[in-house]
């Protein structure tokens, strides 16, 4: 028997991280792999943010920080939520965490009892399901259709609710699909939630700034359910600050206090220097993000053109984030030159890595087994080369 706990044995390794590991192994053998598996901006953190961090170090920001974040950072986040999202929160409603990931985990741990059902809109971000598992909740996945840009509808949601439903989790803009819920769609979701007073919603808005259609709508804007919405956001994507590990949530004081308690026993406050950098990021506004978004939009258009030339790949046009998520099921049942059969998206992703030297992530990791996720956060040149290689290696399938 294993010495490890049942809890950790049941947990899956993140498949995005697993694929990146495989890609790195091939690279270590000297193979030129194009890695489109990672959800990471390829931009450097803007200089004004890096400068603020350097100054913070010399100014003595080197000690333990308050568990829920520095007061001025929490105030700046509250101001941002008011200014950009029309959401009124006080600093006491904000908990700063080690990435949006910890904010999500804190909220799940604070709300979910063993046996509670958590409705997760699929395709979903890889970690949602495992967080629910750690909390001993039961994940109920709802898969949107390709025709509806993979967005779950209010009717689908209503039909999935049971007396055990405790929480709903979704991201918009969505990782992995790039879909963005419209105001009207979220209004429908909000109406369903309003009818079920026990249900809370974890709205993951980490890709807020990376939006090609314009309007970002926060579910908490629907006032009658605001107290039951936990809004998660952070600095990783919009400010290209993945390594700094700063995210946050906004919720009622009761829920924020619970998340703070959780965090106080697991990690304490987020890194001092990173918090000062995050404050500077907010003070600088959206200008740096807007510049990056233009690049993401251009790449999306370029990649879409190439993907549309690949027979059998079916993909909606992403409205945000930096991924493309084609349905590749037309290739299931085909045979690789070495005689092996491609039966799943995982088989195809591995084939593309080994044959085409392009790393991507199987849709199985996102609850969408017909799809593969490619990150478009790479240089134009790399993206062009990657999809040329993919097309060529798919042509070799029998
Ligand atoms: N939520 C979604 C949908 C993500 O894609 C990611 C990162 O990949 C996160 C949350 C986590 O963000 P952070 O790096 O701030 O922890």
TrEMBL record:
EC number: 2.6.1.-
Aminotransferase class I/classII large domain span: 32-390
Alphabetized UniProt keyword annotations: Aminotransferase, Pyridoxal phosphate, Transferase
Taxonomic superkingdom: Bacteria
Name used for this protein in its record: Aminotransferase
Organism: Hymenobacter lucidus
Keyword GTP-binding: no
Record bears the keyword Zinc: no
Transmembrane segments: none
